[in-house]
Amino acid sequence: MKAICLRQFGGPEVLEYHEDFPIPVPGDQDVLIRVKAAGVNPVDWKIREGLLQGRLPHTFPLIPGWDAAGVVEAVGDGTNPSSLKPGDEVYAYCRKPLIQQGTYAEYCTMTMDHVVRKPSVLSFSEAASIPLAGLTAYQSLVDAAKVGAGQTVLIHAGAGGVGGFAIQIAKHLGATVITTGSAEKHAYLCALGADVVIDYTAGDFREAVSQRYPDGVDVAFDTVGGDVQRASADCVKSGGALVSILALEHEAYVRSRGVEPLYVFVAPNGPQLARLASWIEQGALKTRIAGSYPLQEAAEAHRAIQTGRTAGKLVLTIDG
Ligand SMILES: NC(=O)c1ccc[n+]([C@@H]2O[C@H](COP(=O)([O-])OP(=O)(O)OC[C@H]3O[C@@H](n4cnc5c(N)ncnc54)[C@H](OP(=O)(O)O)[C@@H]3O)[C@@H](O)[C@H]2O)c1
């Protein structure tokens, strides 16, 4: 099969394109997916550079990629016969305990529980842009911070893959959304439903938040880390929560402000992915493809995601 693989860690040039990779064999509980499109996420370049080595086991040759949309090719012998069957159009967040057999390939496998029907209204490329970033936003706002109607939420990097879904999910839950982005992203952020947009390049975002919400917001969602995480704690009211998807470097400071620090590392979750699909089909959640690349051009896609400036999502498309 066609696949992108790494034989060593390094820059985008270590992404090799091959056409003779063996097709993975599905385990008893697995689905074999013929991948039509694979999502590209910042974690993919972090894995390529070896930054997750201390956290998850890796084996070379390594096919990167955790997001897939495609068609069921085969199912394992132990799977529920009334669930998915060959020919079904599906999408999935395919993170496994071992980093080796990813989604930048013509075929990938995943435990059937984590594979669900793709939203009927989306193309494969659009569907592939959703699982990792959509589940991250869901697990951060719904599971961790328990955002509800009437609350105010500060969402950083609203134009990013995660931030874009987070704005829409928070609005769907009935919250008021304040978000950050550079001026060129403001029209996009308003179109996503943000109530207040702050140009973080024009000054300290804390001032803009405190002008509108002197007592602070209920929840801050940190998708940037570092100084942004620390400063975000100053924007949350005492008793509120700060949920981060980056290392909780400023946990002690966050606590000292009377704010609960929460960390999320997104986990595969089929029922939640099915819920996101239903929200998409109802029109409550949309995705924006910022760039689409053929599989062979994975290195270009990595250069683009690594800028940290994309508005929306990047995907790889796979013929065959
Ligand atoms: N823990 C987890 O499970 C998990 C899951 C998903 C992602 N992550 C991590 O979360 C981060 C965000 O992921 P992503 O997919 O959303 O990234 P992304 O799509 O690459 O984010 C790009 C966006 O970030 C904005 N941005 C960059 N710096 C900013 C700042 N200081 N303030 C406001 N906006 C800023 C950019 O807007 P401008 O051009 O306007 O600056 C751009 O639109 C990454 O580091 C990723 O690895 C963690």
Secondary structure layout:
Elements: E1 3-5, E2 16-18, E3 30-40, H1 42-48, E4 58-63, E5 67-75, E6 89-93, E7 99-101, E8 107-111, E9 115-117, H2 124-128, H3 131-144, E10 152-155, H4 161-172, E11 176-181, H5 186-191, E12 196-199, H6 205-212, E13 217-222, H7 227-233, E14 236-244, H8 251-256, E15 260-263, H9 270-282, E16 289-294, H10 298-306, E17 313-317
Parallel strand pairs: 4-7, 10-11, 10-13, 11-12, 13-14, 14-15, 16-17
Antiparallel strand pairs: 1-2, 3-5, 3-8, 3-17, 5-6, 6-9
Helix pairs in contact: 3-4
Short description:
By secondary structure, the protein is α/β, with parallel strands linked by helices. The protein has 10 helices and 17 strands. Helix 4 links the parallel strand 10 (152-155) and strand 11 (176-181).
Key terms:
single chain; 320 residues; Rossmann fold; 2 domains; 6-stranded parallel sheet; 27% helix; 29% strand
Give the names of the bound compounds: NADP nicotinamide-adenine-dinucleotide phosphate
Label the overall shape.
Answer: globular
Determine the mean pLDDT: 97
Gap between N and C termini = 9 Å
> What is the CATH fold-level name of the largest domain?
Quinone Oxidoreductase, Chain A, domain 1
Q: Care to count the β-strands?
A: 17
Largest sheet: 7 strands, mixed
Low-confidence stretches: none
The SS-based structural class is alpha/beta
- For the record, what is the CATH homologous superfamily label of the largest domain? Medium-chain alcohol dehydrogenases, catalytic domain
What gyration radius follows from the Cα positions, in whole Å? 20 Å
The total of helices stands at 10
Bin the strand percentage.
25-35%
CATH architecture of the largest domain: Alpha-Beta Complex
How many domain units? Answer: 2
